């Protein structure tokens, strides 16, 4: 029986080559069983929805010749973050859009106007006497004009 003399000296345990082989075999089997990489998902995906997306009633019969398993049309990338009239704009949605912009462009926008022009979101008008600004902490805030 061969042992690895340098391992676990303080505890008095000895690990044999056979033990190492079985440990490697069990770990390899566990990795294979868990799967490596992404598999195809057959169910519907859940994610952010926009006002442009419509739901399909699946209880309705489909037209003859239509593909039941066809993928739905892609949703437009532009999202609507506009607020209701005479209400404060949704700064949470604007901040999420700013974080997405930062991830896509990998840089800080020069000002709010650059962000608004290239973000692909609908920016609601600010309340009277206010304007949008981006803080050093990369948050969209309302400031006085």
What does this structure look like?
The protein is of the alpha+beta class and 145 residues long. Among the domains are: 1-34; 79-144, no CATH class. It is built from three helices and four strands. It has helices spanning 17-34, 91-105, 112-118, and strands at 79-80, 121-122, 130-134, 140-144.
Structural class: alpha+beta
Strand content: 5-15%
- The average pLDDT score comes to 73
Total strand count, please?
4
What sort of overall outline do the alpha carbons produce when their principal axes are compared?
rod-shaped
Tally of alpha and pi helices: 3
Low-confidence segments: 49-59, 74-78
- Write down the Rg: 28 Å
Query: In percent, how helical is the residue content?
Result: 25-40%
- Major sheet size, sense and barrel closure: 2 strands, parallel
The ordered H/E elements are HEHHEEE
Distance between the termini: 82 Å
Strand order of the largest sheet: 1-2
Main features:
single chain; 145 residues; alpha+beta
Task: List the topology elements.
Elements: H1 17-34, E1 79-80, H2 91-105, H3 112-118, E2 121-122, E3 130-134, E4 140-144
Outline of the structure:
This protein is of the alpha+beta class and 145 residues long.
């Amino acid at each position: 029986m061969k042992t690895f003399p340098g391992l676990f000296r303080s505890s008095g345990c000895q690990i044999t080559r056979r033990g190492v082989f079985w440990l490697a075999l069990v770990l390899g089997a566990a990795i294979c069983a868990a799967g490596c990489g992404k598999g195809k998902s057959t169910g519907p995906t859940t994610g952010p929805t926009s006002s442009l997306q419509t739901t399909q009633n699946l209880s309705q019969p489909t037209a003859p010749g239509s593909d039941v398993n066809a993928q739905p049309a892609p949703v437009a990338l532009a999202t609507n973050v506009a607020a209701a009239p005479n209400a404060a704009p949704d700064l949470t949605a604007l901040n999420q859009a700013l974080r997405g912009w930062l991830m896509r462009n990998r840089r800080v926008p020069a000002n709010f106007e650059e962000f608004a022009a290239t973000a692909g979101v609908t920016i609601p008008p600010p309340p009277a006497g206010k304007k949008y600004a981006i803080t050093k902490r990369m948050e969209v805030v309302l400031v006085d004009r």
